[in-house]
């Protein structure tokens, strides 16, 4: 028997506000408090020195992060954008180069390319809402230096296909793991597949230190170059011979951030397990209604490795999705469409204003003038991505949903799916 929709005056399915989507942030507790207090009391806020002897929190965090993700090296930095820039600088991305990025990612992925003097080339996404390997192949030119695989909303890209393409064309593969810390593809953690992985610890992310980032790699040569880029005297500090030292900036992490990040890393598996359990519970409860309505979930390239932080349904049309968003919001579920032509959202390429308009910091030069060929962008250049995103109905799946809230969210979804 179908229930009356809240949008039509029926009772709301969700009775109490759902938890805010700050997975690690909402679990800040005694461990983070104690870790910060320890650092403050030691008066050592800087990773390289201070009054307290012994290893720094940043060193410890790097060691544990690399071990957790299964790589030889991790470098803690100040943000996910900084991590992307360090990874790209380490790989030698620079003026004249092209870097392939997906049409759906936070603008930072493309901005990092431009910051290095290279140009982003935008590729379509597929039904997983991650970069489409087939379109990547079409976008490769003799000037392509790297491919950026962005694991959007906790979901792994097709790393097997992307690795094969990168090898065959002799280009680098960078993973942007900002939204998918701890998730995996075929049993191997994301960030460990590519030449380098870039993580963010900004407050929305699965684990957080407010701001922060990590570069992951198995290559000692790349690690050394990333160290030099992230710290103006990183080369000197790490005893690299002066004639090999390259110029750097300052993207260092401080000890307070590292102490929080270390405490959060200890909570990562618990957060992932809870999100995955909640995701599975909702999917199970809506499976019949979704099947009857002919609605599919976004494709998961590895359902086991998925972080479970987002439930995304692909509806038949953008109009349908917009109606479902309104209906779900009336039920008390904060759903959204991933693309609406009337809503500016810097996760969708057509709203990347400085990229679309090829803005640079100087009149004389800049990435697009240094490019080896003319690069053009247009708002409708990735029609498949816009179509998929406009039909994508997105719900956050908090690790902190109660059993009752899982039932309520599923009820809300079933009411709306039945009415479609
Ligand atoms: C996919 C993606 N890449 C990169 C970033 C940049 O990270 P940050 O904000 O830490 O610089 C973010 C998050 O903001 C992101 O979601």
Automatic annotation (TrEMBL):
GO biological process: polysaccharide biosynthetic process
Coiled coil: none
SUPFAM superfamilies: PLP-dependent transferases
Active site annotation, chain numbering: 205
Keyword entries, A-Z: Aminotransferase, Pyridoxal phosphate, Transferase
GO molecular function, one term: pyridoxal phosphate binding
Domain of life assignment: Bacteria
EC numbers: 2.6.1.50
Family from the record: Belongs to the DegT/DnrJ/EryC1 family.
Identification of the protein by name: Glutamine--scyllo-inositol transaminase
């Amino acid at each position: 028997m179908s229930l009356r929709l809240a949008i039509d005056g029926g009772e709301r399915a969700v009775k109490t506000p759902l938890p805010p989507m700050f997975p690690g942030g909402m679990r800040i507790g005694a461990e983070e408090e104690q870790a910060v207090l320890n650092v403050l009391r030691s008066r050592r806020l800087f990773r390289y020195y201070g009054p307290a002897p012994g290893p720094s929190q940043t060193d410890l965090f790097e060691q544990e992060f690399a071990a957790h993700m299964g790589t030889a090296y991790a470098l803690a930095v100040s943000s996910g954008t900084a991590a992307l820039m360090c990874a790209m600088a380490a790989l030698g991305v620079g003026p004249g180069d092209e870097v392939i990025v997906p049409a759906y990612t936070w603008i930072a992925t493309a901005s990092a390319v431009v910051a290095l003097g290279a140009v982003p080339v935008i590729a379509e996404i597929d039904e997983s809402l991650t970069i489409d390997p087939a379109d990547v192949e079409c976008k490769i030119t003799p000037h392509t230096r790297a491919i950026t695989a962005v694991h959007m909303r906790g979901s792994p890209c097709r790393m097997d296909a992307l690795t094969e393409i990168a090898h065959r064309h002799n280009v680098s593969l960078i993973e942007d793991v900002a939204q998918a810390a701890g998730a995996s593809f075929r049993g191997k953690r994301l960030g460990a597949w590519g030449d380098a992985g870039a993580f963010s610890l900004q407050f929305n992310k699965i684990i957080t230190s407010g701001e922060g980032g990590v570069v992951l790699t198995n290559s000692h040569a790349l690690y050394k170059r990333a160290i030099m880029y992230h710290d103006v005297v990183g080369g000197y500090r790490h005893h690299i011979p002066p004639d090999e030292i390259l110029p750097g900036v300052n993207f260092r992490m401080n000890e307070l951030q590292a102490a929080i990040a270390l405490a959060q890393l200890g909570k990562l598996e618990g957060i992932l397990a809870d999100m995955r359990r909640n995701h599975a519970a909702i999917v199970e409860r809506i499976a019949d209604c979704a099947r009857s309505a002919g609605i599919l979930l976004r494709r998961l390239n590895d359902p086991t490795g998925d972080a479970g932080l987002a439930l995304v349904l692909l509806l038949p049309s953008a109009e349908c999705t917009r109606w479902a968003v309104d209906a779900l919001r009336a039920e008390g579920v904060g759903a959204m469409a991933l693309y609406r032509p009337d809503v500016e959202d810097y996760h969708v390429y057509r709203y990347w204003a400085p990229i679309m308009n090829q803005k640079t910091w100087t009149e004389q030069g800049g990435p697009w003038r240094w490019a080896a060929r003319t690069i053009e962008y247009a708002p409708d250049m990735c029609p498949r991505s816009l179509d998929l995103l406009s039909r994508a109905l997105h719900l956050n799946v908090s690790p902190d949903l109660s059993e009752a809230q899982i039932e309520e969210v599923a009820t809300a979804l079933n009411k709306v799916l039945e009415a479609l």
